């Protein structure tokens, strides 16, 4: 849907220019939800603004479908791109009713009875789609935060755009509502098969909602793939730590002939000799997830130095005899005692 190649953007700020985008390459998959994930300041919003047509790249090219919408010689205005936008806090017009907000981007003139009727029908269909039938006459101020975001989504979807861009649309909501609304929105977007790009700094949101995740850092896409691919095979230790809890242990490669061509290595580590995916080894560091470790009857001796209870599960922090720190997860009811001596091993098959 979107094809982004070599996009750069530098802001001429003082005392120094800010290089917000330093050569973005990304394909946004048609019909799916792509999350652009990254820490604050990495350039996510700048990229989204360029996709929307609110800003222009200094270099590079953006295609939407077959059409070039931004390149050194071309710039297609936002209203000509067929792109819907949902901002962080809805940005509804406070003086307009919910129905008028949704109708705002719809074509047609108000003097033709037939067009008025078709606009009204479209607004009602959108209100039903987002679960707010009968709310058309209210003002935005009479709605909850979650309802306002649904109206913002209805407004973005009303003109049937080719792509909808969502800029941290759930960040202003409280935790429980955020989870509920984001799942609702994902199901809704899937049901109407709309291509969507979601900007977020929340890795849980990106991993649980998106079909495709693009991880950004310092103005670059450092990795993209399905949530499972980026979580299981992070591009580097920093990506691993950003995408979830990670355990990093020193290692040296014992066998790297890749005789089976299966992308596996044998490494020596404080956890013993392990056969691991080559993608989990970065410059002498083996990156594991806590759920790849377990307390067992056999394994390497370790001492528990901290535990945290989360209800559904618990986190155990341990130290091996050589001082290497580890973290692993257990069922909430199985938390070991502080200072307990245990044996730890890697879980095969993950
Ligand atoms: N109009 C501007 N003028 C100058 N610098 C800007 C401008 N817009 C963004 N920047 C800078 O560009 C960098 C990227 O900003 P951007 O808003 O794209 O990041 P972000 O990843 O969306 O961050 P956040 O999650 O905090 O919104 C930041 O260093 C920011 O300060």
What's the SSE blueprint?
Layout: E1 2-11, E2 18-28, E3 33-37, H1 44-52, E4 59-64, E5 67-71, E6 74-75, E7 83-86, H2 98-103, H3 113-129, H4 145-157, E8 163-167, H5 175-191, E9 195-200, H6 203-209, E10 212-217, E11 220-225, H7 227-232, H8 237-243, E12 247-250, E13 252-255, E14 264-269, E15 272-277, E16 281-282, E17 285-288, E18 293-296, E19 300-309, E20 313-320, E21 325-331, E22 341-346
Parallel strand pairs: 3-9, 3-10, 7-8, 8-9
Antiparallel strand pairs: 1-2, 1-4, 4-5, 5-6, 10-11, 12-17, 13-14, 14-15, 16-17, 18-22, 19-20, 19-22, 20-21
Bound molecules: adenosine-5'-triphosphate.
Adenosine-5'-triphosphate is lined by residues 11, 13, 18, 20, 38, 40-46, 201.
**Range of helix content:** 10-25%
| Uncertain stretches of 5 or more adjacent residues | none
Total domain modules? 2
The CATH fourth-level homologous superfamily of the largest domain: P-loop containing nucleotide triphosphate hydrolases
How many individual helices?
Answer: 8
| Beta-strand content bin | 35-45%
Largest sheet: 6 strands, mixed
Find the structural class using helix and strand composition. Answer: alpha+beta
SSE topology string: EEEHEEEEHHHEHEHEEHHEEEEEEEEEEE
Second CATH tier, the architecture of the largest domain: 3-Layer(aba) Sandwich
Backbone shape: globular
Average predicted confidence as pLDDT: 89
Say what the CATH topology of the largest domain is.
Answer: Rossmann fold
